[in-house]
Amino acid sequence: MKASSNGVRQIVIVGTGLDGRAFRLPLPTDATTFEIDRADIFELKGTLLTEAGLLPHCRRQTIAADIADPEWIAALSLGGWQHDQPTLWLLEGLLIYLSVDPRTFRVETLRGAGGLQCVTYSRWDRAPE
Ligand SMILES: C[S@@+](CC[C@H](N)C(=O)[O-])C[C@H]1O[C@@H](n2cnc3c(N)ncnc32)[C@H](O)[C@@H]1O
What we know:
This protein is an alpha/beta fold and about 130 residues long. It contains five helices and five strands; from the N terminus they run αβαβαβαβαβ. The chain has a single domain, classed as Vaccinia Virus protein VP39 (Rossmann fold). α2 links the parallel β1 and β2. It is globular and about 35 Å long. About 20% of the residues are buried. The protein binds S-adenosylmethionine. The site of S-adenosylmethionine has 14 residues, from loops.
C-alpha cells in the first residue's frame, strides 16, 4: 500500500500461488497486479475465486509462465507490464523452488526494471550476501 501511495502502479507477484492482494487490498483502480505462476495454479485459483464470488479492486493480469525460463520476462511484457514504469516486485516463498542463484535472479533478471523488491528467503544457505 505504501508503494501505491508513492505512485507505483505495477505490482508483479512472481510465484503468486493463491495470493489475494488484488482482492483484499484497497489498491488504486489504475494499478495492475501481474500474477505469474504455472497454468494449473491459475486454473485452481480461478475456480476458487469464482466459487467465492470475489472481484479484484484493481486491474489483474495473470501470466502463466515458468520463471526458470528466461523468456518469462517477455511473457510479462506481452501481458502489459511496462519495463520503464516503477514496479513493486514481490517474490515470496518462491526462491527455494528455483535452481538459479537468487542473486542472479534478483540483480540480473530484474536489472533495469526499477522500483522496489520484496523477497523472502526460506534457507539461509541460499540467501544473498
Ligand atoms: C510456496 S508458494 C508461495 C505462494 C505465494 N507467493 C505466497 O507467499 O503465499 C510458491 C509458488 O511458486 C510457484 N512456482 C514455483 N516454481 C515456479 C516456476 N518455476 N515458475 C512459476 N511459478 C513457480 C508455485 O507454483 C507456487 O504457487
